[in-house]
TrEMBL record:
ATP binds at G234, G235, S236, T237, Q238. Keywords: ATP-binding, Hydrolase, Membrane, Nucleotide-binding, Transmembrane, Transmembrane helix. One of its GO terms (molecular function) is CDP phosphatase activity. The active site is at E204 (proton acceptor). Its EC number is 3.6.1.6. Gene3D superfamilies: 3.30.420.40, Exopolyphosphatase. Domain 2. The keyword Transmembrane applies. This is nucleoside diphosphate phosphatase. The lineage of its organism: Eukaryota, Metazoa, Chordata, Craniata, Vertebrata. PANTHER family: ADENOSINE/GUANOSINE DIPHOSPHATASE, ECTONUCLEOSIDE TRIPHOSPHATE DIPHOSPHOHYDROLASE 6. The chain crosses the membrane at residues 28-47. Belongs to the GDA1/CD39 NTPase family. Pfam families: GDA1_CD39. One of its GO terms (cellular component) is plasma membrane.
Amino acid sequence: RIKGIMYEFSVKQAVFSLDEGSMKISKLFYGLGIFACVAIYVVYIKWHLYAKPISGTTEWATESRRGKLDHQTLMTDYSVFYGIMFDAGSTGTRIHIFKFTQKSKETPKLSHETFKALKPGLSAYADDIDKSAQGIQELLEVAKDEVPMELWKFTPLVLKATAGLRLLPGDKAQKLLDKVKEIFQTSPFFVRDDCVSIMNGTDEGISAWITINFLTGSLNAPGNRSVGMLDLGGGSTQMTFLPITEITLRTSPAGHITSFQMFNNTYKLYSYSYLGLGLMSARLTILGGIEGQALKEGEELISPCLSPSFQCEWEHAEIVYRIKGQKAGEPLYESCANKVAELLYKKVHKIEVVKDLDFYAFSYYYDRAAEVGLIDKEKGGSLTVNDFEIAAKYVCKTMEVKPGDNPFLCMDLTYISLLLQELGFPKSQVFQLAQKIDNVETSWALGATFHYLDSLHRL
């Protein structure tokens, strides 16, 4: 086409040159012809490079899903970018869609979070994997609505599973992850081979610590004192903090100290996760059940932590247990506390130094405190270990007469109070309980997203 245009203009030039009086006009048209050819060529090249539709089937999106795009270039090309993190927990699957802004060579800033949760957890579909797809697809639609279409192929999509899948047999957990990965790979988002995984407990604690310290401003301001993190999930519980003395680093048990790099800084943290000591798993153990094992015909669990007149069916991890309270004897709180103490005996490493640190607590710590009015349900607040103990004694006393709206509340509060003391916190220790800070969920999801984005930036 371009050759034809050039030929057309060369013919016109020859015609005009026959007329000596039209020499100036001929030169003018010759120049315009050259300019037109160049312009047409530039337009053609631009059209060829940029006029591709943005969809999951384009070559660009395919390369994104295969992880072949240079994400460092992608991040620096956009002052606004997104990260999508799925939290596959023991009691539900949650999507966090984070919107970031970043200036060149500066730490990214979080400008917005979109959050949605679905129940039950992914582990509930261990025996019917295809059913897990519906919830994942529903949450992906939320991401498509939130992230601008032109940024889909640049937006990392990740799922990390926690205690729910850690407690499953390996083959069942892997089949669930494979199903999610299959769904992710058909999406228009940026997907690598490591897009789905089971998060180990230490990483979960570290990621939650990153979240809290980023939201409180400690992470980006080295002069600010960092805060510790306590997370009580359904299947596991984590404690993470930055040690203030070398003694803690030297005397901590193997596996409790870990180092990681992020945003050109190295952090050495105390972080440990206790699998099986999350609130729901602990509840099952206190009741006398075994994780993943159904009761025999006619069998029931009898607990001193329940109201003597109470009996019901309780479902945990897709297994239904028949439970009832123990006949009246010694006061409910004392008998329940003895049962909880048996569970915690030699299961938790006590650290005296935590009494000198500031801690944030969330998840079930927050939920149970809000349920009994120790903190504002929306705003959160501060309380002490002793506040949990006083609430436990009061609730247990009232449940000696009738179960109340939450028949497990005596057990849960007693467990929380004794767990904190076993971890090394004195009864006078003050905690900040927060569900959100600056409208962002206080969970490991933001920290894990930061860590993932940072790893892409170093590719």
